[in-house]
Amino acid sequence: MIGKENTMDYKRMKLEDMMKYIEENAPQDKSWFKSIAFEDIEYKDGTTGKKYSHLIARKAFCERYMPEIIPVAKKKEKASEKLLNW
After folding, report:
1. What is the mean pLDDT of residues 4-11?
2. How far apart are CA 26 and CA 28, in angstroms?
3. What pLDDT, on a 0 to 100 scale, did the predictor assign at position 6?
4. What's the CA dihedral at 54, 57, 63, 67 to 10 degrees?
5. Helix, strand, or coil (residue 49)
6. What is the pTM of this model?
7. Pick from 24, 20, 14, 18: which is nearest to 66 by CA?
């Protein structure tokens, strides 16, 4: 997913793409990425563990390295306001 400009598509980004980018451009951030990518979970039997969360990992990765590719929500406008301003 890494193109000529070294950018990625936010929605199609895979864990392997993020790992490769960090390995090539910021190897000192491996431990940071691992700490962000895993979230603590509690199982029904009371034990705790760590689980990879792609949504959290992708958002943190993009905020740090590629904030320009994070999608921005459009401001919604009511239909009545559209018609009144038309």
Report:
1. 71
2. 5
3. 56
4. -40
5. strand
6. 0.72
7. 18
User: Which SS3 state, helix, strand or coil, does residue 42 take?
Assistant: strand
CB 1 within 8 A of CB 8: yes
Structure tokens that stand for 34 in this block: 């691992």
Helices within the chain (DSSP H only): 15-25, 30-37, 54-65, 79-85
CA distances from 83 to 2, 31, 80 (A): 43, 53, 5
The model's pLDDT over 13-64, given as tens digits with 9 standing for 90+, comes to: 999 999 999 999 999 999 999 999 999 999 999 899 999 999 999 999 999 9
